[in-house]
């Protein structure tokens, strides 16, 4: 299903449920869809703009950077992202005659885009939503941290998107001065991250859905923000805390991190 923006998603999966949506951040990471973003048209919806590493692997143009510079001037833009490194990116060559060279070029392009977007975020005083993915060996996270530290950007605010890695990786990310870890419902379906989720400090935890991706259930092809209570219930069980306490904590963390005004008490 091809979904254009938050309003389209809501009309498809939750028509009439706007009164149950307080606030959230919609990530626009595909340049072809930036113009479809519903900035200012949906109550409580803030936005972030970035370039997904899969696309950054092909190179980011000056025109795209200029467009991002303009888009992030909106008072409803609360972050830049997703940005980062994704080592699962596949070559677009058909057929690929030199996979090793293509892989090196893709990673080089991703790193260049990542640094440029970090510098843009610093100039705009915006947090960064990090997309970091590899085959499970932690190499993408290691390199991402190396780049941040090498360029003296560790004092920025970072949101580690869809985090379900190891306790060792959690500790490594905590070298950054201000970081939160977003837990999505991926762990429910894949039974992963069960050890690390209880170890995330309360003040560094937020929940997310990554909708319309990462469907929680095989019978539900489209994920959506109204699945968040399901994720929250499972996280509260793993952390052995009341659901009400968890909800208050993650809401407070998100509001402070993204500097969003409270929509309702």
Automatic annotation (TrEMBL):
GO MF annotation: an example: hydrolase activity, acting on ester bonds
Pfam annotation, one family: TatD_DNase
Residues the entry annotates as binding a divalent metal cation 1: 82, 210
Alphabetical list of CDD domains matching this protein: TatD_DNAse
Enzyme class: hydrolase
Alphabetic keyword roster: Hydrolase, Metal-binding
Catalytic activity, EC: 3.1.21.-
One term under GO cellular component: cytosol
Positions of a divalent metal cation 2 binding: 131, 161
DNA damage found in the keyword field: no
InterPro entries: DNase_TatD-rel_CS (IPR018228), Metal_Hydrolase (IPR032466), TatD-like (IPR001130)
Family: Belongs to the metallo-dependent hydrolases superfamily. TatD-type hydrolase family.
Name of the protein this chain belongs to: TatD
Naturally occurring in which organism (per UniProt): Mytilus coruscus
């Amino acid at each position: 299903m091809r979904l254009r923006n938050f309003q389209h998603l809501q009309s498809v999966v939750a028509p009439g449920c706007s009164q149950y949506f307080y606030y959230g951040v919609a990530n626009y990471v595909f340049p072809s869809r930036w113009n479809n973003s519903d900035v200012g048209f949906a109550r409580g919806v803030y936005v972030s703009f970035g370039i997904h590493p899969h696309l950054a692997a092909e190179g980011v143009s000056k025109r795209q950077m200029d467009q991002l510079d303009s888009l992030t001037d909106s008072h409803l833009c609360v972050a830049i992202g997703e940005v980062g490194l994704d080592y699962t990116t596949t070559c677009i060559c058909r057929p690929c005659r030199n996979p090793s060279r293509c892989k090196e070029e893709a990673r080089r392009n991703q790193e260049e885009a990542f640094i440029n977007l970090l510098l843009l975020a610093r100039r705009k005083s915006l947090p960064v939503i990090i997309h970091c993915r590899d085959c499970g060996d932690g190499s993408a996270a290691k390199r991402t941290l190396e780049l941040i530290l090498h360029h003296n950007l560790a004092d920025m605010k970072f949101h580690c998107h869809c985090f379900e890695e190891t306790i060792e990786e959690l500790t490594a990310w905590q070298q950054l001065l201000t970081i939160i870890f977003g837990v999505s419902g991926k762990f429910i379906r894949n039974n992963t991250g069960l050890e690390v989720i209880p170890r995330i400090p309360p003040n560094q935890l937020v929940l997310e859905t990554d909708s319309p991706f990462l469907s929680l259930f095989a019978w539900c092809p489209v994920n959506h923000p109204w699945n968040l209570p399901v994720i929250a219930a499972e996280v509260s069980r793993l952390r052995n805390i009341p659901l009400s306490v968890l909800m208050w904590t993650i809401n407070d963390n998100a509001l402070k991190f993204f500097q969003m005004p409270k929509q309702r008490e």
